[in-house]
Amino acid sequence: MTLRHLLSFPLLAALAAAPAFATNGYLQHGYGVKSQGMAGVGIALPQDGLPAATNPAGTAFVGNRIDVGAVWFRPSRGAEISGNGAGLDGRYDGNDTRNFFIPELGYVRQFGGDYAFGVAVYGNGGMNTDYRRNPFRSFGAQGNAGIDLAQVFVSPSLAWRITPDHAVGVAVNLAWQQFKAKGIQPFAGFSAAPGNVSDQGRDDATGWGLRLGYTGRLSPTLTVGLTWASKTRMGDFDKYRGLFAEGGGFDVPENYGAGLAWQATRALTLAADVQRIEYSGVPSVGRTLAPLFAGNPLGSNDGPGFGWRDVTVWKLGAGYEWSDNLTLRAGYSHVSAPVPSGQTLLNILAPGVVRDHASIGATWKTAGGELSLSYTRAFRETVRGSASIPAVPFGGGEADVHLSEHILGIAWGRAL
User: Fold this and answer.
1) Which of 38, 67, 85, 94 could bond to 129 as cystine, CB 3.0-4.6 Å?
2) 228-251 burial by CB neighbour count: b if 16+ within 10 A, else e?
3) Residue 120 maps to which CATH number?
4) Where is the protein found, in the record's own terms (predicted)?
5) 149 contacts 104 by C-beta, under 8 angstroms
6) Residues 162, 164, 165, 170: is their CA dihedral positive or negative?
7) How do the pLDDT tens digits run along the chain, 416 residues long?
């Protein structure tokens, strides 16, 4: 059965139809509603059936369980152009499409005493902008402008508990992604494949990668975790081979991290993660616009990209067992800036610039299972352009881009 066949199942079909705007570049700030209530910590603190999305070794420590949830994203994104000699000046609202929903599913089963199998189904994130007033209309662009990227992961995992307190795990990340661009017709004049830059409908691609992890209890109160995910190598977006470098290449970046979880008191758990995301390893994302002016058009093997930098994410979270039936959560995270001030022109289409997130959450236990809620506020961040619009051929001036988000999650789970 292929990944495209798997997408015929209702949950995966819903994921496929639910592009989102993610928060650490274009990865989600956390996987699983419980994790999201603590700003995304989870490398050393598995709490539900989705450890395969963060650290597959964690499946050895959550028992037998199933979790089903959904996350609502409401981003506010836009741009302002000033000092442009080609008529682009103005404020632009990228919110013609406002609401996004992403389901998630996790399942874990222990077997053989020392082993655990799990599967996590989740949206890795994405990018979406929809400008009714097209920022590039003075160049001859028509219709709404924007892009729409959705990524779906199905991650089966296996964990081995080496000792009662230490486990290693591996997950196979089976990935599907879909992309659409519209209203950016003028960029076809700078492309190696002018007919495959804009307004080609939706295109999809599949690929796979690996995630490895370790979780260890160093003492009854202190747990550590390590995780690494390879670059997920995807097939090309053939319909947009004139936009993305290397003929439509758009892989998912390598990422890795470490975490600590400390049982400070019987009721209070504190956790921290640090994560590194290597956007520079994906040419379509990490290359700057500069190659365009060195004779390498959009879509060529050495063509330009969106200019994103590698980022480091810091996360702090706390969970407090208020009673046997109620757990409260809170957290804060910060990410280094992915979009440099000199690369804001193309990132009008992809302003993944938020840096700070504050989260709260709670879980209520009942006889029938657990109900979890989380809310995250991704605070507004503006990147102000500096030498961001080349005078030739784009008329100079500056492009400022901004993003903020509201993120609400709800999930139900139970032990099996």
Assistant:
1) 94
2) bbbbbebbbbebbbbbbbbbbbbb
3) 2.40.160.60
4) Cell outer membrane
5) no
6) positive
7) 455 554 445 555 555 545 555 678 778 899 999 999 999 999 999 999 999 999 999 999 999 999 999 999 899 999 999 999 999 999 999 999 888 888 999 999 999 989 999 999 998 766 789 999 999 999 999 999 999 998 999 999 999 999 999 999 999 999 999 999 999 999 999 999 999 999 999 999 999 999 999 999 999 999 999 999 999 999 999 999 999 999 999 999 999 999 999 999 999 999 999 999 999 999 999 999 999 999 999 999 999 999 999 999 999 999 999 999 999 999 999 999 999 999 999 999 999 999 999 999 999 999 889 999 999 999 999 999 999 999 999 999 999 999 999 999 999 999 99
Q: Identify the domain containing residue 120 by its residue range.
A: 3-415
CA distances from 73 to 61, 68, 82, 399 (A): 30, 17, 30, 25
For residue 66, the tally of other CB atoms under 10 A from its CB is 17
Residue 169 and residue 59: Cα distance in Å, rounded?
8
Distance, in Å, from the CA atom of 385 to the CA atom of 391, rounded to the nearest integer, reads 14
Residue whose token pair is 């507004």? 380
Say which amino acid occupies 259: G
Our count of domains for the chain comes to: 1
Instruction: Indicate the pairing of strand 166-182 with strand 115-128.
Output: unpaired
